[in-house]
Amino acid sequence: MIHKSILVLFSWLLVNSFAHAILTIEITSGSEDAQPIAIVPFQWIGKGTRPASLKNIIAADLQRSGQFSPLQNKDLISQPHQGTEVKYKTWRALNVGYLVVGKIQVMADDSYQIQFQLLDVFKGRQLAGYSIRSLNSGLRRTAHHISDIIYKTITGEEGAFNTHISYITVIKDKQNKKRYQLAIADADGYNEKIIYSSSQPLMSPSWSPDGTRLAYVSFLNGRPEIFVQNVFSAKKEKLVSFKGLNNAPRWSPDGKHLALTLSKDGNPEIYIMNINSRKLTRITRSYAIDTEPEWLPDGKGLIFTSDRGGSPQLYEVKLNRNKPVSRAQRLTFEGNYNSRASVSIDGRYIAMVHRTQGKFKIAVLERETKHFNVLTKGNLDESPSFAPNGRMIIYATEEKFRGILSAVSVDGRARQRLSFKKGDVREPVWSPYKINK
Amino acid sequence: MIKIIRYFIILSVVVALAGCNLGPLKKRGGKSTDNQQQDNQYSTGGEDSASKFTSGDSLDVSSLNDPNSPLSQRVLYFDLDSSQIKDEDREIITVHAEFLAAHSDITVVLEGHADERGSREYNIALGEKRAKAVKQLMTLQGVTENQIQVISFGEERPVALGHDSSAWNLNRRVEILYTGY
Question: Cβ distance B73 to B94 under 8 Å?
Fold first, then answer.
């Protein structure tokens, strides 16, 4: 029996109370080949109020991935809490491949000791077993951590449940004036924290690769300028403010540069800025619009939107030490509108905004095969952003004329909708794996 | 809502005027050869075209606050994906350009906007492209660079809040904003 002890102390965003920003997470469609998994509600050992249900959080995580279909509580034939109590034969009869059992124990210092085991029903053995210490305030993160362990043990791939999203919300204040808010939340939309709020438009958040900072565009001074803000301390500074556009910041994979759009030399062109020295390297030269740069994961190329061919399309320029080494090559040929690329971490897929029959959808291009697949069904879908494990894409869509967030698996088979209580929600960006404080 | 109605009125005036003629004003001195050629192309409008608009350089500063002045038309509309200035809007731009050329101490902000469709960053660039197309036409008619400031808000500041083509048509626009008026 494997037993690892992990002390999980969560200091991330402790200032934040448990703001339940999201009303519902609705799984609008699951994948047909999703694997059945039974997660038994964890046994509660101790007095006092039972904290948030780990079982529900884990089940929701696994279901959202599109690769698992967790059983409902009423379908559980028994409720064991440790491997030795499990009668595998009865579970086999349900045709459930995996079983998760566990306990939460209250410790003297009011933290929790959580034990769980992932069991292979058909082989009748344990695949993983952990004991994790968690503070009450960190219980949701612990649940996501357990989801990651289950996901990786079964699929062999990294999970992205214990990650974050950033996005912009627009609400009306008491004077009925718009307020633009830069928000951070868990990947499932819980624990929302507003890290910056302004009466002027905010746009284009981009995570630093270590997850400590966000670059974004603010109209605070009446025109677009690029700011960088620490997500923990909320300390921010104005980084880029040339004449004209200062837009579309995208952090480089090495964390030392920003790709961005400036129109200081006439029309929108893409540049790379060294964040320390503020030195600029110009990447594009055309009379057309060039904007929305996105890094290839190895840092050796940028994908961007340009209307140099008469309509907005995606182009790729190869880089050597952040200098262009080739003419930009056009990547997209389907339809007359393809923009705002997001590249998966393995570089295999490019997600984009694609117009078809006057409607804007999220499409994905497999770079090697050139296979092009329209994934979403909305009218005004935009801002796709890959999860750090490359399996899901979060994007902005519209429901009853209100901006909401949705996610779709890269194969288009699993879908979910994150419905916020109020306001317009837009421009989601998925964080990298680690948020190192 | 009142604002929206106002834009409809402006739009209908623009359309009505466009129906009358597409001709620009009589040629002004001090223009480039390129511009004269362009003017000649549109000279078929005839003499009555000039009577529809007062020429901008004959207007004084008080006409900036006169709702009946041709300078009161300060919004130009654009087609989808386009930064091409519509023929009927060339008249409006010319009046402003002539006025500004004659009043070099007055400055304007050209505010470019897009509708909500498509990606936000591309729309910021498109809004700027629209405003710069207007700026170019103004500078060709004698307005100096430092009289014009271009700002794009992309799709971030719609005037019409609907989600249909009538709202989108009103939101794809460049606004001419006189500084201090």
Answer: no
For chain B, domains (ranges, CATH) are: 2-22+53-178 (3.30.1330.60)
Answer whether B120 sits within 8 Å of A219, measured CB to CB: no
Residues 6+ apart with CB under 8 A from A14: A137
Enumerate the CATH 2.120.10.30 domain ranges in chain A, comma separated. Answer: 164-430
Q: Where in chain A is the domain with CATH 3.40.50.10070?
A: 4-155
Whether pLDDT at B43 is above 50: no
Q: In this predicted structure, what is the pLDDT of residue A29? A: 65
Distance CA A359, CA A408 (A): 18
Q: How far is A311 from chain B (nearest CA, A)?
A: 8
Reported as a single tens digit per residue, the pLDDT across A233-285 is 889 999 999 999 999 999 999 999 999 999 999 999 999 999 999 999 999 99
Residue B46 pLDDT > 80: no
d(CA A318, CA A300): 6
Tally of residues, chain A? 437
What residues of B are in contact with residue A244 (Cβ under 8 Å)?
A: 128, 150
Architecture of domain A4-155: 3-Layer(aba) Sandwich (3.40)
Query: Closest to A245 (Cβ–Cβ): which among B120, B128, B163?
Result: B128
> What is the C-alpha to C-alpha distance for residues A378 and A371, in angstroms, rounded to an integer?
21
Q: Position of tokens 């002027």? A: A200
Helix (H) or strand (E) holding B150: strand B148-154
Task: Report d(CA B7, CA B76) in Å as an integer.
Answer: 10
Interfacial residues of A (vs B; Cβ cutoff 8 Å): 201, 203-204, 219, 222-224, 244-245, 247-248, 261, 263, 267-268, 289, 291-292, 305, 307, 311-312, 337, 339-340, 353, 355, 360, 380, 382-383, 398, 401, 426-427
Contact A360 B118 (CB under 8 A): yes
The nearest alpha carbon in chain B to A204 belongs to: B121
CA neighbor of A433 nearest in space, from A231, A279, A237, A211: A211
Cα separation, B113 vs A201, whole angstroms: 13
Q: Give the pLDDT confidence score for residue A248 in this predicted structure.
A: 98
Output the pLDDT for position B12.
46
Strand partners, A262: A246, A269
- CATH of the domain spanning A164-430, picked from 2.120.10.30, 3.30.565.10, 3.40.30.10, 3.40.1360.10: 2.120.10.30
Residue B6: per-residue pLDDT:
53
